Amino acid sequence: MRVIRSLRMNFAVWIKWIFGKKRARIGIYGPPNAGKTTLANRIVKDWSETEVGGMEVGGTSHIPHETRSAMRTDGVVINTNGSSIELDIVDTPGMATKIDFREFMAYGLEEEEAKRRAKEATEGVIEAIKWLEDLDGVLLVMDSTEDPYTQVNVTVVGNMEARKLPLLIVANKRDLPKASPSRIKAAFPQHPIVTISALDGSNIDELYVAIARHFG
Amino acid sequence: MMREVQMDLISADRLESMSSMEKIRLILNKVKRGNIVVLEMGLTPEEEVKLIEMTMTEIRLDEFSGIEIESYPVKKEGSLINKILGKSGIKTRMTVIGPANQLRTIEKDKYQISTKVSVGD
Hints:
The structure holds two protein chains of two kinds. By secondary structure, chain A is α/β, with parallel strands linked by helices. Chain A has helices at residues 2-19, 36-47, 101-105, 111-131, 151-162, 181-187, 204-215; strands at residues 23-29, 71-80, 83-91, 137-143, 167-172, 193-195. Chain A contains seven helices and six strands, in the order H-E-H-E-E-H-H-E-H-E-H-E-H. In chain A, strands 2-3-1-4-5-6 form a six-stranded mixed β-sheet, sandwiched between helices. The longest helix of chain A has 21 residues, at 111-131. Chain A is globular. The two termini of chain A are 27 Å apart. Chain B is an alpha+beta fold. Chain B has a single domain (7-117), classed as Translation Initiation Factor IF3, CATH 3.30.110. In chain B, strands 1-2-6-3 form a four-stranded mixed β-sheet. A two-stranded antiparallel sheet of chain B has the order 4-5. In chain B, strand 7 and strand 8 (113-117) form a beta hairpin. In chain B, helix 2 packs across helix 3 (45-58). Chain B is globular and about 55 Å long. Chains A and B meet through helix 4 and helix 5 of A and helix 3 and strand 3 of B.
């Protein structure tokens, strides 16, 4: 199975090299509340050329697991520094190893609503994992104010390396005083990292250049 | 009365003799009983993600809220012999796993994982 997958990946690389294909299906991954949907919304808002340009990929909230099913946006063309890439973006639910409905009640949700959210969140994690099989690369979003050495981050990085898929780490929330992107760089020195704020858009152009270079 | 917590340290030899699903089932069964599991040789990235997936399917609202797991990134051993033999050359590393409501990670860096285990009343 691994040999077949490897051959399929090599074949895809050759096809891309021969025909100059610059289209990639990119998954946005990370722990809950890292800013994945905020980033997806910004990318689509900045680059969507359709009539619904600027439409949000999904809603955002301070309560974890706001995104509980994957949201896909196709055909987002990024043009930067003379290069262009067309992305199909998959905004995935936050990855977690535990989900306790009582955590949501602490944010003020009623018990029934908290239980429903917890159940949907578990399904969302499974969906995010299933998507790993069907991507050309990953944007791994980390919260720069948090410890980067979480198991979710370690697991996603490990899976991308095992599948030999390109990975770009996005150190988000640089607008916050406690942000420390250097901790992320120290934890994952083998991968490219771009520091941004998806919320206020600072340094977002550097991310677009990195996306075109890395996935193009 | 003080409650006791069972800790199971599983050797690399035992893990090497098991399939991925056997490892995951063993871990989940132990953790759901409230045990803390330490693996001398951890899981591959694919096994870790499968463990998370299976954990999600087994979460029950008032019984089991998931796992706390801490491990280190795998080490690559890219020797020529491994490449010729088609081996992955991946060396998995020590891993600690426990029930999310009992095991809590205090600190983790490149050299040490510090956790606290809640033993209840």
